[in-house]
Amino acid sequence: MKISKGAMVHEFGHNQGFGHHERDECPDGDLDGCTTGEGYSDKTPMGSGGPGVGFNAPELISRGWLPGGQAVTVKKSATFTLSPLHSGQAGGVRVLDIPLGKDRLVVEYRNEDPAYTDDNLDAAIEGLYAYLAPEGDYNHSRLLDPTPGEGEGKKDDAVTTLTDKANKVAVEVGRSGSATVSVSLDGVPAPAAGSAEHGNTQAPAPQTHGGEGGPVSEKGTDADAPAKPERADHQDLAETGGSSATPLIAGVGAALAAVGGASLYTLRRRGRRSA
Q1: What is the pLDDT of residues 164-217, one digit of tens each?
Q2: Which whole-number Å values give the CA distances from 267 to 191, 254, 261, 273, 275, in the listed order?
Q3: How far apart are CA 159 and CA 189, in angstroms?
Q4: φ and ψ at 81, to 5 degrees?
Q5: Cα(4)–Cα(223) distance, rounded to whole angstroms?
Q6: Buried-exposed string 226-250: b where 16+ CB fall within 10 A, e elsewhere
Q7: Measured in whole angstroms, how far is the alpha carbon of residue 242 from the centre of its chain?
Q8: pLDDT given for residue 68 in this prediction
Q9: What order of strands is seen across the sheet that includes strand 127-133?
Q10: Element (H, E) at 19
Q11: Rounded to whole angstroms, how far apart are CA atoms 223 and 48?
């Protein structure tokens, strides 16, 4: 039985402690009126995104995979220009981690970087996305979808504005598809781009491996579908889709190949000596 690329990267995510990734519906970006658990997010292999999308920002934060100021903890009103989450360029702010009462609001910019990949990573989901990490639990974050119902494409739930009146937090994107993000805390308006410091550049602390706490159903996820002999980009929830594997999976495959090659070499040397 063949294992699909989507199933491979999905199960790798489980091994890292990632659970299945769902969405909340928050019409018009009003965080006071969200409905929890409205399907999968499509923004990670753990949310039926398939191998054509990378792991999302909360997942990367939880494992400590955003070094060197790539994830910024926002402590005062500011305006940021975000780099794509999976860009091949070094440095640059990629993720905003915003206090939301006891919870955390995580904002990321997703876009294909053709200089780094072969047009196979995040190409279908260009836009700015937001996640709720309840009580700071990044391992169990949920996508905040500002559109009602099911959209036509994977990037229909990109955000332009988010508001939380109770916590006096507002997030505004400069324009649709832009990576310029203004964050207002405690009711203080964010300054214009380039006119203020970025607040605190301290990165959120990684979390310990949480696991799933027991057997988990894979129904409707990437791991639920058999491998396909041909390419199947942008398929439904129960299908995996795929072009070439993500850089992360490629690295895992290369490591396994190296271990296998070293083992074969050792066995051959032992065979020659015994002969």
Answers
A1: 999 999 999 986 556 899 999 999 999 987 544 454 556 676 655 554 444 445
A2: 65, 20, 10, 10, 12
A3: 19
A4: -110, 115
A5: 8
A6: eebeeebeebebebbbbbbbbbbbe
A7: 17
A8: 82
A9: 23-25, 142-145, 127-133, 103-110, 95-100, 71-73
A10: none
A11: 9
- Reference 133, options 73, 75, 89, 175; nearest CA is 73
166 in Cβ contact with 184 (< 8 Å) = no
* Residue-by-residue DSSP string for 143-198: EEE-SSS--SSTTTT--SEEEETTTTEEEEESSTT--EEEEEETTPPPPPTTSS--
Two tokens at 48? 């039926």
pLDDT tens digits for range 138-151: 999 999 999 876 65
Predicted local distance difference test score (pLDDT) of residue 75: 95
Residue 7 near residue 240 (C-beta atoms within 8 A): yes
Residue the block writes with tokens 């006119």: 195
User: For 89-140, what is each residue's pLDDT tens digit?
Assistant: 888 899 999 999 999 999 999 998 877 777 779 988 999 999 999 999 999 9
Token pair belonging to 144 = 């905040």
- For the chain, give the number of residues: 275
The structure tokens listed for 42 are 């499509």
Phi, psi torsion values for 109, nearest 5 degrees: -115, 125
CA dist 43 and 124 (Å) reads 10
Closest CA to 80 of 210, 168, 198, 1: 198
